[in-house]
Design goal:
308 residues, alpha+beta, 3-stranded antiparallel sheet, 10 helices
Length: 308
């Protein structure tokens, strides 16, 4: 219940006091409505979407750095004579590939997985050569191959086994399972070493997922700028390609990404794909020749002599 109490004040002023509030009426004065007070404008709070976390840096590839930096020069030539005395280092390094936890590997992005298998392949190739260095050749085989040709090492791709994540592999198995099947990336074939003079050069650094595509592009450019990889004889109207780009070698691996029916129509599908791929890495003058001139394609004899 509200109780009102009347209190007389000065003339013309009466004050009513309640238990809750004070009401003041001034007789004879017009009532003035209070001006509305606008609430202050409040800027909406901008919520920034969370930035995607960069993939974790994979440090495993660093394990290969010392071997490659110390025994491989910037042209891809290998000091096998010195490395042969360091066989134990190569064995320890390959043990690291065996001991890697498959769960850790499976957590890596695709680029690091590619880098991992490229490094494993190239380190195993170094080990096979050092295990057979200096290369011994038979009198009969020297009729076909030079004395220091890796072709004198029997079963280099099929017979030499190594263990990766507790699973047995050969170089041939790694190439088939990962480079040809799992990873649709034909630039890989410019990154694996065949330990020979006509091979794409062995890098003197490991492959890394964080810069893999930059490294692969560099490998392609280096290889196609070498006359053992690609050249044009304009006098004879002939384009010479490395033997590794033959359809029976790696040429067919370019079809899925670089196959075309619009250009190079007088060539077979694998050769069209290789030529189409090459146009991304050669001079504009050479691109124009490949696209509009009439020419034959020939493959360069492969030089299997050791890259030393």
């Amino acid at each position: 219940m509200i109780i009102y109490r009347k209190v007389k004040m000065a003339k013309g002023l009466t004050v009513f006091i309640t238990s809750l509030t004070v009401l003041i009426f001034i007789t004879g004065c017009p009532q003035v409505a209070p001006e509305p007070i606008e609430p202050p404008e409040v800027e909406p709070v901008k919520v920034e979407p969370p930035k995607p976390k960069p993939p974790p840096t994979v440090s495993f590839h660093d394990k290969c750095a010392d071997i490659l930096e110390n025994y491989v020069d910037d042209k891809g030539m290998v000091d096998y004579k010195t490395l042969e005395r360091k066989k134990q280092e190569l064995r320890k390094l390959l043990d690291e590939f065996d001991e890697l936890d498959p769960n850790e590997y499976n957590s890596w992005p695709k680029e690091d997985k590619i880098a991992f298998w490229l490094n494993a392949y190239n380190i195993q190739m170094l080990k096979i050569i050092t295990d057979n260095y200096p290369i011994e050749s038979s009198r009969i085989l020297r009729l076909f191959w030079p004395p220091n040709s890796i072709r004198h090492i029997k079963g280099i791709w099929e017979n030499y086994k190594f263990i990766v994540m507790d699973e047995e592999f050969t170089l041939s198995e790694v190439e088939r399972r990962f480079f040809r099947q799992e990873f649709d990336e034909p630039r890989i074939f410019f990154a694996i070493s065949h330990a020979s003079l006509s091979s794409p050069p062995l890098r003197n650094e490991p492959y890394y997922g964080r810069k893999l595509y930059e490294q692969l592009d560099d490998q392609v450019k280096r290889f196609l700028s070498d006359p053992r990889g690609f050249r044009i004889d304009r006098n004879d109207q002939t384009v010479y390609l490395s033997a590794i780009l033959q359809p029976t070698w790696y040429g067919k691996e370019f079809i899925s990404k670089y196959g075309t029916d619009k250009k190079f129509k007088d060539q077979e599908p694998a050769t069209r794909a290789v030529l189409n791929f090459a146009t991304n890495y050669i001079s504009q003058q050479d691109v124009s020749f490949l696209e509009v001139e009439n020419y034959s394609v020939k493959y360069i004899n492969y030089d299997w002599r050791l890259n030393e």
